[in-house]
Amino acid sequence: EIVLTQSPVTLSLSPGERATLSCRASQSVGSYLAWYQQKPGQAPRLLIYYASIRAAGVPARFSGSGSGTDFTLTISSLDLEDFAIYFCQHRTTWPLTFGQGTRLDIK
Amino acid sequence: QVTLRESGPMLVKPTQTLTLTCTFSGFSLLTSGVAVGWIRQPPGKALECLALIYGDDNESFSPSLKGRLTVTKDTYKNKIVLTMTNLDPADTATYFCARHLDPSHAFDVWGPGTRVTVSS
Fold first, then answer.
1. Nearest-angstrom CA–CA distance, B113 and B97
2. Of all helices (H) and strands (E), which one includes residue A44?
3. Any chain A CB within 8 A of the CB of B96?
């Protein structure tokens, strides 16, 4: 099973700042890495797939990069609505797994 | 418009069997590369994919839960039923179903989730 480790666990930033979230895989997942945003009481929302492609309707301030084992989700300028939990997920081999999440808090 | 919705009991007793239904619209499971996944999230914890179901006989189940999970598909009525046996309090979670597309290798549309508590 491929383990996805996200860092940091919690990130405290202010609106307007840049956020950089990391996801590291225990073995290569190629570019088959997705990022999701989840707000309290809601289902996850797909942000990025295939490591760097924004899903439909996702603002341009969200970007993804990386390949192999190291991936990054960047939010260029935080909006109030961006404070949430972010998960990464791979789809290389079964079982498909998710990272443990990074909580993005308002500083 | 693609939608999915989970339904099932909110409370189940330990050792009982849980039956959850995912009803979806706006897409067909018979389309190549389309699947429906069941994902759960214990309170305050991470997501865990339980099963990934395609319209043909291609089905995958979580190794940690294999033997406890079965799926029934009604591809024409757009329903997928997940059955989990021998429930334990550790199975308390919100259960989601979501559409998975092979081209993106991701879950692009999710249901709102259904909260299941396992308690006597």
1. 7
2. none
3. yes
Sign of the CA dihedral A21, A1, B107, B79?
negative
Contact B4, B67 (CB under 8 A): no
CA distance B41 to chain A (A): 10
CB B20, CB B31: distance < 8 Å? no
Q: What is the DSSP letter of B65?
A: T
Tokens of B104: 């993106």
- β-sheet bridge partners, residue A75: A19, A62
CA distance B115 to B101: 25
> Which residues fall within 8 angstroms of residue B14, CB to CB, at 6 or more apart?
B87, B88, B89, B118, B119, B120
Chain A residues with CB-CB distance to B110 below 8 A: 43-45
The dihedral built from the CA positions of residue B34, B102, A6 and A52, taken in this order, carries a sign that is: negative
Q: Report the range of poorest mean pLDDT among A65-74, A87-96, A97-106, B68-77.
A: B68-77
Q: Does B50 score more than 90 pLDDT?
A: yes
